[in-house]
Amino acid sequence: MGRFFYLLEAGMVPKRKINKVVLAYSGGLDTSICVSWLRETYDCEVVCFTADIGQPGELDGLQEKAMQSGASQFILRDLREEFASDYLFPMLRAGAIYERKYLLGTAISRPIIAQHQIQIAQELGADAVAHGGTGLGNDQVRFELAYMALDPRLKVIAPWREWDIRTRVEAMQYAEDHDIPVPISATTQYTRDHNLWHLSHEGGPLEEAWDEPEEPMYLLSASPADAPDEPAYVEIEFENGTPVAIDGQKRSPYKILSYLNTLGAVHAIGRADMIESRLVGLKSHGVYETPGGTILWAALRELESLVLDKATLLHKEQAGLTYGDLVYEGYWFSPLREGLDAFNDRVLQTATGSVSMKLYKGNIIPVGRKSAFSLYREDLVSYGEVDVYDQSLSEGYTRQMGLALKVRALNRLEIAENDDHKPDYSRFKRD
Q1: For 387, phi and psi rounded to 5 degrees?
Q2: CB 3.0–4.6 Å: which of 181, 260, 302, 375 could bond 292 by disulfide?
Q3: How many CA atoms within 13 Å lie on the side-chain side of 335?
Q4: Residue-range definition of the domain harbouring residue 420
Q5: Residue 292 in contact with residue 270, Cβ under 8 Å?
Q6: How far apart are CA 340 and CA 76, in angstroms?
Q7: Spatial CB neighbours of 178, under 8 Å, sequence gap ≥ 6
């Protein structure tokens, strides 16, 4: 045993024999060089798996690229509808948000990728899974917590934590030395992640937190200055908190988001520039474009304001912050997330109705809300002549609500008058 720990500290313990590994493959620089490195280091077969979760233009030629990089097999799964219905819409219904701005587009994509990666590993008899997350980022945690929750028997390989490559230049040199086709050059400025929910930008000029992002960086949304001078109106219909139709036309979850992404982008909706707290304790500067998701998030909040009472709204909003933390930190496959979904299923039973929104130069302006379950009653709140509400009854309620304030004020006043005081409760008698 002592010799084992000596070898371990010296980095001389032989690696566990791996026969086949399934790699979460995007075709970018990191995962492209992972293929060759895994084969060299573990002398194993590498299966590349790519999830189509709505990243247009990024899937072309991936199979050829994976095979040129040394993969034995390439698997592509179209998960766009599943991503929208089973991941994005539950997160939307929860009102999840991270640090007041981030609608969690990258974080929510990792569990669905990991879920299918594990399924493929089990189907093919693989004994390991791998990802391209770095030791400084969030993705290593998100992927690996999902792996542990779904099949802890599989070995997890994170090349960025094992190899000697430390910089993008070194990674590109490795690719060149091994004849690996990569899609970027040393002059590429930003690290991006794109899916049906959002497009993120990090690195490059964004590493300076003071400077305004350059307009050419944005690839989805128009600048507010360049957005149309005429607003667009859109009506979104919900059933139990789930979007089901746009402007009266029923659409699938994927098609709802695709339509709103296009519409929102034209009108400069969904940009978020933030300093973000990573899981590893570092801060990062990121810019996110989430046009369709931002519209849906705002619309559902308007509907909730119509159909949910004050206490339920408060607790649902608090639960949404917890939900956002769970997604960000990689705890999608956790009992708490499942429990919060059950909570949302219950409280959103009345969140059926429609919301009309006006989109104008980066702004989302609610213009109408309707629901058969509306708690808003014009006959109860009208300042006109009504018989359903006796305003004189509110006096007792108001006096009771202010009781603690009254006691506090009497104590303060009587202490000022007399250091050796007793409260005069006779002052509580009705005038």
Answers
A1: -110, -5
A2: 260
A3: 0
A4: 391-428
A5: yes
A6: 31
A7: 33, 36
Where does residue 224 rank: exposed (0-12), middle (13-18), buried (19+ CB within 10 A)? middle
Strands 45-52 and 73-78, by their bridges, are: parallel
What pTM value is reported for the model? 0.91
Task: Return the amino acid letter for 262.
Answer: T
Distance CA 123, CA 137 (A): 29
CATH number of the structural domain spanning residue 276: 3.90.1260.10
The tens digit of pLDDT for each residue in 90-103 reads 999 999 999 999 99
Does residue 116 sit in helix, strand or coil? helix
CA atoms of 48 and 59, how far apart (whole Å) = 13
Contact yes or no for 232/313 (Cβ under 8 A): no
Report the run of H or E that residue 409 belongs to, with start and end. Answer: helix 403-417
Domain identity same for 22 and 159: yes
Six token digits for residue 156: 């997890």
Q: Is residue 167 classed as helix, strand or coil in its secondary structure? A: coil
pLDDT per residue over 336-353, tens digit each? 999 999 999 999 999 999
